[in-house]
Design a protein that fits this description.
With 409 residues, the protein is of the alpha+beta class. Among the domains are: 126 residues, PAS domain (Beta-Lactamase, 2-Layer Sandwich); 41 residues, no CATH class; 69 residues, no CATH class. It is built from 10 helices and 12 strands. It has a 6-stranded antiparallel β-sheet with strand order 3-2-1-6-5-4. Strands 8-7-10-9 form a 4-stranded antiparallel β-sheet, sandwiched between helices. Strands 11-12 form a two-stranded antiparallel sheet. Helix 6 packs parallel to helix 7 and helix 9 packs across helix 10. The chain is elongated. It starts with a helix and ends with a strand.
Length: 409
């Protein structure tokens, strides 16, 4: 009885692991496939706003192809084309695989033909599936506008091929087939397996029963009635169970090691962030206390380093403004000499000392007559001239202009 319980528990665990594996594989496919569309949509929208594309959009085709290829190379797109406002493909570039395994960009065969799906041009959906011959592409369109007028559309696409199938197989550990249903049934677009069987893959996508020796998961993407596209992922059950049994301890050790590294990484990241943050907080307190002589320097090119630079700039700006305000408060605006406030501060300081000092008060007479006869501008000039002369007198340690009755000390 105990043996049966252990056996049943092991079988249930295997079923659960297989179910999780298949669910994860389907989720990975959905996420990665969707992320390619999002990337294409964002890139197409960016290119549609490029001035260079707009400038040559309705010019000679050679210039348009050159500009289109320059953008295509930025994301290594397999398909790039433009569609005119009338719905005609006026430029098309296709990256095709050569016999030697390399890829070559050539002019597409659809140039001059009407775009097959005019409804897409005004469809807000971000992604579509597009077939050229036996090849299938994920693509996204974006309108090219000059002002409020749409002069056409730019289109960029990634091919659904063996590279993508191999990528999914590497991530999920399951063989991956991409198939499309045509008039004669399913046909194979790409596969990670050299012995792929399109009938077997079609059964997986249709949900038909398959041999128990396989674990399988299928996902169908139907785009209107234009293209029935699907992915079939599968692997031998025996291989998966064997791997589960062999890697159980490896996975446990890996999980423990990952946890330790994660905690260490989290501690390091936390310390690397909190240390400069504490320094920034301390510097903010120093500035708040009125000390502007200390600056903060972080050897950090991230946002924290930029914040430290901004705090230093703010500190310099505050110091400059306070110095300017202090100067205005203690100096006469006409002569730039110290005023009554400054004189009071100096006298209070001198009175606290035991050394003798002298104060001379001068008053500029008949200044009112100058203002009345020659104008205030001349009167101001007389005051400024007197200030300059008093500055040059040897023996005066301080010259102030009180302003009231034009008194001088």
């Amino acid at each position: 009885m105990a043996f049966w319980t252990l056996y049943a528990g092991n079988q249930n665990q295997q079923k659960q692991e297989i179910s999780n594996r298949l669910t994860t594989a389907k989720t990975v496919f959905t996420e990665l496939f969707s992320s390619r569309i999002e990337y294409l949509a964002a890139f197409a929208e960016t290119v549609s706003k490029d001035y260079g594309i707009k400038q040559v959009f309705n010019e000679d085709q050679r210039s348009l192809l050159v500009a289109l290829n320059n953008h295509r190379k930025r994301i290594n797109a397999d398909l790039a084309m433009t569609v005119s406002a009338e719905g005609v493909i006026n430029a098309q570039l296709v990256s095709a695989e050569e016999d030697d395994g390399g890829r070559k960009v050539r002019r597409g065969d659809e140039v001059g033909a009407e775009f097959r799906y005019p409804g897409w041009l005004k469809n807000p959906e971000r992604g579509h599936l597009y077939a050229i011959g036996k090849n299938v592409y994920q693509l996204s369109l974006s309108p090219v506008k000059v002002g409020a007028k749409t002069i056409g559309w730019v289109v960029f696409g990634f091919q659904v091929d063996g590279r993508l199938a191999t990528e999914f197989m590497t991530i999920t550990g399951l063989e991956t087939d991409f198939i499309v249903e045509g008039d004669a049934g399913w046909w194979l677009v790409a596969s990670s397996s050299p012995t792929a069987d399109v009938k077997f893959s079609g059964s997986i996508i249709n949900g038909d029963p398959v041999d128990d020796q396989y674990i399988v998961v299928g996902h169908q993407i139907s785009e209107d009635q234009h293209l029935r596209f699907g992915v079939a992922m599968y692997g031998l059950r025996a291989n998966f169970v064997e791997v589960l049994q062999e890697q159980w301890w490896k996975l446990l050790i890996l999980a423990v090691g990952t946890l330790v590294l994660s905690l260490a990484g989290a501690y390091w990241i936390s310390a690397s962030i909190t240390r400069p943050v504490k320094r920034l907080v301390q510097q903010a307190k120093i500035v708040a206390s009125g000390d502007y002589n200390q600056t903060i320097k972080l050897d950090d090119q991230s946002e924290l380093g930029q914040l430290a630079d901004e705090i230093n700039l703010m500190q310099d700006a505050v110091l400059s403004r306070e110095q300017a305000l202090s100067h205005r408060a203690n100096h006469d605006p006409l002569t730039d000499l110290p005023n009554r406030n400054f004189l009071k501060i100096i006298l209070d300081s001198l009175c606290g000392q035991e050394e003798a000092f002298g104060v001379i008060q001068l008053n500029l007479s008949r200044l009112k007559d100058v203002n009345d006869t020659l104008g205030h501008q001349v009167g101001d000039y007389v005051i400024q001239a007197l200030a300059d002369r008093l500055r040059s007198v040897q023996g005066f340690q301080l010259v102030c202009h009180l302003g009231l009755m034009n008194s001088w000390y």
